[in-house]
Amino acid sequence: MSSLIPGLKIPSFDNTLGALFIGSSLAGILYGVGCLQMFLWMTGKRAESDRPWFKTFPLSSALETAHQATMTAGIYRFLITDFLNPFALPSGAPGSAEVFVYAQSLLLACTALMIQLFFCWRIWMLSANAFEIPQRIAFTALTTILAMFSFGTNVGKNEPE
After folding, report:
1. How is residue 52 annotated by DSSP?
2. Which tens digits make up the pLDDT trace of 143-152?
3. In angstroms, rounded to a whole number, what is the distance separating the alpha carbons of residues 143 and 109?
4. Are the C-beta atoms of 106 and 152 separated by less than 8 Å?
C-alpha cells in the first residue's frame, strides 16, 4: 500500500479490516433477508391465526435492528473515525470499541434468548411431547445466553496491559 507521506509505510489491512468490512456487509445482507421474512410473515394470513405469544416475535426484529445499528456504528468508528488510532479502541470512553462490543453482546444475547426458546418449544412440539422434561432444552439455551452475558460484561472490565 502506498503512503501519502514519503517514507511512511502503512501496513496492509486486507486480512483484518477487510475481513471486518466483508463480515459486516454480509451481516447487513442477512439482516435484510430477516426483515423481509418478518414483513412477509406479518402481512400474511398466517400471522392472524398464530398464538398471541407468538406475535411478540417482532420484538426480536427490533432488537436485531438495534444490534445492526450498534454494529454499523462500531464499524464506522473503527474504520473511519479512528482509522490508524489504536489508542482510541480500548479507552472505555463512550464510543470506544469496548462500549460497542458490550452493547452488541447484550443485544445479541436478548435476541438469541428469544430465538432459542422458540426453537426449544418447536423441538418439543415436533417430538410429540416425547421429552419427559422439556426444561432440559430450555436449560441448554439459557446456559448459552448466560455465557453471552458473561462475555459482554467482562469485555469492559479488562484493562489494557
Report:
1. G
2. 877 877 777 6
3. 11
4. yes
